[in-house]
Amino acid sequence: MTAIPRGRTRRTAWVTAACALAVTGALALSGCGGGDDPDAGTNGIGKLPPDRIQAKTRAAADAASAVRLSGTVVTSGRTYRLDMRLKTDGGTGSVTAQGTTFQLLRVGEDLYLKAGADFWNHADGGDGASGKLDGKYVKVPQRDPAYRKFSGFTDKDVLLDGLLTLHGTLATDGRHADGSGTRTIRITGDQGSGGTLDVSLQGTPYPLRLVRAGQAGTLRFSDWGRDFTVEEPAKSETVDYGRQLPAS
Q1: Each residue's pLDDT tens digit, 117-166
Q2: Where is the signal peptide (predicted)?
């Protein structure tokens, strides 16, 4: 039998002990709760106070080139169901109110409204103009009171500025997930009575879901930064209404 030199035995024992310590240390670290960090793999805003979260999500929304907004808005006692795509220089989508749906299209400063015969029959009191207007784009004059009312639904900056504000004392209300599985942090105003806002914990901290204060509607935000085309409708699709548009 070949004798093993004492020096080699000591070195082997030292290496074995070091390896054991390394393995033990790794196991200890893995068992210290490091894997339970709720902010692991996120954009980190969950660690911020609620006012900073609100400020960051507002900044992200302002900087985004485009967004899709869908849901309900209650204003002046009337409920509007929106499905709008918005960007800086225009917007397009549908608005439903009192059971009637109409399309809005804004290209730059030009605003168009397209609706079916039911909408125009209600607006005109059934004077026979609805057949000419049915399914056509009607250009809304900027001096018409309806321009200000309807253009707000197509203006990204105006609409978001009026929506993305919680009222009262801000607080965080845990981590959640939206319908697509995106992880979110929820912030509230006055424990929810001032509204709640779910903000993405993944990537850019965009707002994803808003419940407005006072039961004034619920909105979802998606397609942040996804561009789309807005262009003037063809002349064959456009008609002059010839009078003041209905504001309601």
Answers
A1: 888 776 655 555 566 788 899 999 888 888 888 898 999 999 898 889 89
A2: 1-28
Q: Are 142 and 149 in contact (CB under 8 A)?
A: no
Query: Is beta strand 238-239 parallel, antiparallel or unpaired with respect to 218-222?
Result: unpaired
Residue 213: the pLDDT is 93
Residues in contact with 224: Cβ distance below 8 Å, sequence separation at least 6, in sequence order: 60, 61, 64, 66, 67, 204, 206
Sheet with 137-140, edge to edge strand ranges: 170-177, 183-189, 196-200, 207-211, 218-222, 66-75, 78-87, 90-97, 100-107, 110-115, 137-140, 238-239
Considering only the C-alpha atoms of the chain, give the largest distance between any 2 of them, rounded to a whole number of Å.
Answer: 115
